Amino acid sequence: MTTALQFSSILTEQPRQAAGRADPAVLADLNLDQVFAAITRGRDEYDLMPFLKAPLHDAQAVEYRHQILQDMQDEALSGALAGFAGQMRQMRKYLALSQELRYRYQKQEWFLEAADVYRDAVSTLAAALAELSPASRGFTAFRRYLADYTQSEAFTGLAAGIAKVTGALASVRYCITIKGSRVRVTRYEGETDYSTEVQRTFAKFASGATRDYRIGFRNPADMDHVEARILELVARLYPDEFAALDGFCARHASYLDATIRAFDREVQFYAAYLDFIAPMKKAGLEFCYPAVSADSKEISVRDSFDLALAAKLMPAASAVVRNDFQLRGPERIFVVTGPNHGGKTTFARMFGQLHYLAGLGYPVPAREAVLFLPDQVFTHFEREEDLATLRGKFEDELIRIRRVLDQATPDSIVVMNESFASTTLRDALFTGERVLGQMTRLGLLGVYVTFVDELSSLNEATVSMVGTVVPDNPAERTYKLVRKPADGLAYAAAIAGKYGLTYRQLKERLS
Questions:
Q1: Is the bond preceding 315 in cis, omega lying within 30 degrees of 0?
Q2: d(CA 369, CA 442)
Q3: Distance of CA 511 to the CA centre of its chain
Q4: Residue 385: which CATH number?
């Protein structure tokens, strides 16, 4: 069938290479592992994680996904897709039954049922897409594909075969005579049906409402040996009808179209995310389709938030703090300082999440966003000391950042959080200067969370962001980060916390 050449994938317009497979450690550092677990919950059959681990580095490919997601925000289209997914799920259930059951004709009957559900699912979706006419390039191409496919010999032959075999089997009528342990099966030849007469006879004994003592019979999918033997005898009585069933199953053993099967899985990549963010949008949180570029590193974001944190705080949307940031001209790296537990790590995660989600083509958690499409996102977060390596914590951090910088390119993003906090101020300053120098020489984008204020004004590529507190109560955090010079208190706050001398710690001790 030549129509397969007319549609590539609902995920990508043309076969493209992903920006790179995400490191599980990076997803964990950014809390995206929690987000993706929530997105895929209840959709294990679709195996969506490979898609979520493959962000794009192509603005046109991202825009292709934006169009599809915008189409899917139409309730009529999303309803049609949900109906299609439900029917395809039912079809797979019937196919599984046809493989699991023991008896030949029962296996074939479930196969016929599966094919009929598939036929109806495809026809219904094709009609819905023709009526709704979604605007995206992806759905437009798939609509045309379905229109051609439903007119193809493969599909029309399948539909005709289902109708023929179903009609033939519906005409089968037989009688069962049971005498002792003997069962006799014959064709139905117009014998009298006594059920109506029996009901009429016993109707006169009914006196008002009575308790129903009838016991329902279980109706398992599988047959017992007696039922299977009766079916075999019925097949002997109607050889042509059951031969048609045999022939149908042989001719259409591979009826499921590969492109439609792929679409059924891939469209869930979009549906799962839209379902995940729907409660947050209802609660008042904003999502936007970012303007993306694989070339320009001038970025700006308004009212953004940590997606994983927002999901945990739901439905209390008002508790989610939004932040703004931007980089212009030669600026490349945010150096974030401020008091402990003031939102610095959340800001770093948010920065990484935004760029990663933008690469997937998803709406991002922000009111407005202009973002860069990285070839890879790297992280360097504090780790517990691993005694098995026989290395100290500081040495381990140096080895890990060396690996990151060896792999990073000018198109990468690096998110560093509380790096080198285990060493002295002098060593942290010395190491930080070297690491930030290498990052700025590469020209990559990044975030560097630190307690060393001197790093915030290292060169023209670094931009200082500071976590703020309530002016009248420095112990109370606002979780808002603002663009301003470091205030010189970050390291002092870290030392005070280390020795139990913060305002909160002293207040607790004195009380």
A1: yes
A2: 24
A3: 49
A4: 3.40.50.300
> How would you class 159 by CB atoms within 10 Å of its CB: exposed for 0-12, middle for 13-18, buried for 19 or more?
middle
In a domain, 263, yes or no: no
* Closest listed residue to residue 318, CA positions, set 280, 370, 277: 280
Residues 493, 340: Cα–Cα separation, whole Å: 7
CA–CA distances in Å: residue 419 to residues 351, 358, 393, 455, 463: 17, 26, 10, 12, 17
Please indicate, yes or no, if residue 303 is contained in any of the structural domains. yes
Q: What phi and psi, each to the nearest 5 degrees, are found at residue 416? A: -115, 130
- Strand 377-381 and strand 473-483: the pairing is unpaired
Average pLDDT score over residue span 353-370: 97
The answer to whether residue 415 is domain-embedded is: yes
Tell me the C-alpha distance between 236 and 126, whole Å.
40
Domain extent, residue 304, equals 271-510
Cα gap 312→320, rounded to integer Å? 10
Query: pLDDT, tens digit, for every residue of 428-464?
Result: 889 989 999 999 999 999 999 998 888 888 899 999 9
In a domain, 462, yes or no: yes
Token pair belonging to 8: 């590539």
Domain count across the chain: 1
Amino acid, single-letter form, for residue 141: A
Beta-carbon contacts of residue 43 (< 8 Å; ≥ 6 apart): 268, 272
451 touches 472 (CB < 8 A): no
Helix (H) / strand (E) containing 175? strand 174-179
The pLDDT, as a whole number, for residue 373 is 97
Structure-token pair, residue 128 = 């819905």
